[in-house]
Amino acid sequence: MSAAEGPLVVGVDTSTQSTKALVVDASTGQVVASGQAAHTVSSGAGRESDPRQWWDALCEALHQCGDAAHEAAAVSIGGQQHGLVTLDDRGEPVRPALLWNDVRSAPQARRLTEEMGGAKFWAERTGSVPAASFTVTKWAWLAENEPDAVRATKAVRLPHDYLTERLTGQGTTDRGDASGTGWWASGTESYDEEILAHVGLDPAMLPRVVRPGEVAGTVRDSHDLPFSKGTLVAPGTGDNAAAALGLGLRPGTPVLSLGTSGTVYAVSKRRPADPTGTVAGFADAHGDWLPLACTLNCTLAVDRLAALLGLDREAVEPTTGLTLLPYLDGERTPNLPNASGILHGLRHDTTAGQLLQAAYDGAVHALLGALDLVLDEDADRSAPLLLIGGGARGTAWQQTVRRLSGRPVQVPEAKELVALGAAAQAAGLLTGEDPASVARRWNTARGPVLDAVERDEATLARISGVLSDAAPLLERGTEAH
């Protein structure tokens, strides 16, 4: 047996590129075991993964945890949002899942917005204006491009739903992840039958939305995972809502997450509805709201630029006249799904390090541009930005965020906040606590605070100017090769 003070719980983060599992002491928050296994994602026009990979990766990650996973009393899955998982009548994938960063459904997003009352209708009805990342647009794309796959589909799930269902045998989701589909009405907190009818999706094909704090099911015995039969399974949630739980966020505290995608969000007591589409009005995992803005190009794009230049990602040099918009995968904020990267201001004396710094500046500019829209009037706009995600420990990322935000920056020491948030949700099943309160008891947000520096208004203005002037090029996009 482990030397834990209290019962053990498992928190899982099934992300775009890997699945991570943590075994956590529910009393102290101490991580007593961990495991991780990779996924593959297709390249080319789309971004797809076989959901069965996620299950195999979960099995591998849990087996790496050893006996501690078998001792766990509860488990919860946090997962990448928006992905469209289509299952046949045997529960097997009809085709690979369309992932959040697959932007082929941009035309369907535009058409759905126009066909059903415009952006204001969608914002008021679902909290968000459909973008190419949203599940409803992916379903519309599939219906147009692969009607045989739609006919074969008997159940529609999100990535975290798929794994939870394989654990319990029951189709369930939660309000946090459901709010990113585009077919969940945020006002009534139920599936929107008018939208579902419009896109030809039977509500019976969707999972039951489990309430915060409710048990989604128990682990069944028809698999080889190292769980005891009857282990409690929490509702799980989307990755951003899980990270918010993992930080124990109180309303108004701003978060900037530097991952494959970049996100800015804060918990709010007010239901968001931004008709511009910049802010997605997501629900959080415990009864409040999680207004969020997301960029498609963050650490992956900057690392790609570093690789092209043959530089370490930290090898930046100050730049004054160079602008790089690193929209390598199209972009969601600003909403430019067909865009590619644009470089302006290149000179004979420009260095590779300056080019790399310009990539950081362009990525952070996009995130900070949405921050004021995410924060409501109750937010403390001088409070430290909580910097999380894979890039948060990078000095170049930290210094760029400080310089362009003019705010202090706090970097939590906890590394796997999505998995920790899922673990806090699992612990809440055992203790009856709100998961965010569990995370605060675990002190997960603890970490150094970097003082504010003067905001670099000149760089912000230059990037905004290039973005405005380049709008026709960015909207036109490039021909696929």
UniProtKB/TrEMBL annotation:
Enzyme class: transferase
EC nos: 2.7.1.17
PROSITE patterns given in the database record: FGGY_KINASES_1, FGGY_KINASES_2
CDD domains given in the database record: ASKHA_NBD_FGGY_BaXK-like
Keywords: ATP-binding, Carbohydrate metabolism, Kinase, Nucleotide-binding, Transferase, Xylose metabolism
Active-site annotation: 239 (proton acceptor)
Domain Carbohydrate kinase FGGY N-terminal: 9-246
Keyword Methyltransferase: no
Domain (Carbohydrate kinase FGGY C-terminal): residue spans on this chain: 309-427
Signal peptide: none
Keyword Magnesium: no
Chain positions recorded as substrate binding sites: 81-82
Pfam families on file: FGGY_C (PF02782), FGGY_N (PF00370)
Reactions accelerated catalytically: D-xylulose + ATP = D-xylulose 5-phosphate + ADP + H(+)
Family in the record: Belongs to the FGGY kinase family.
Chain's role: Catalyzes the phosphorylation of D-xylulose to D-xylulose 5-phosphate.
Name the UniProt record assigns to this protein: Xylulose kinase
Biological source species: Streptomyces osmaniensis
Lineage: Bacteria, Bacillati, Actinomycetota, Actinomycetes, Kitasatosporales
